[in-house]
Amino acid sequence: MPYFQGIDVPELRQLRAFVAIAEEGHVTRAAERLGMQQPPLTRLLQGLEHELGVELVRRLPRGVQPTPAGLALLEEARALLMRSDALTDVVRRAARGETGRLAVGFTSSAALHPFVPGVLRMFRQALPGVSVALEEAGTGELMDALLHERLDAAFVRSPLHGARGLQAMPILEESMLLALPAAHALARGRSGTLRPVPLPQLASEAFVLYRRRVGQGLYDAILRACLEAGFSPHVVQEAPRMTATLSLVAAGLGLSIVPASMQRLRSDGIVYRGLARCPALVAPLHLAMRAGDASAVLARFKAMVADAAAAES
Question: Chain centroid to CA 225: how far?
Answer without folding.
Answer: 34
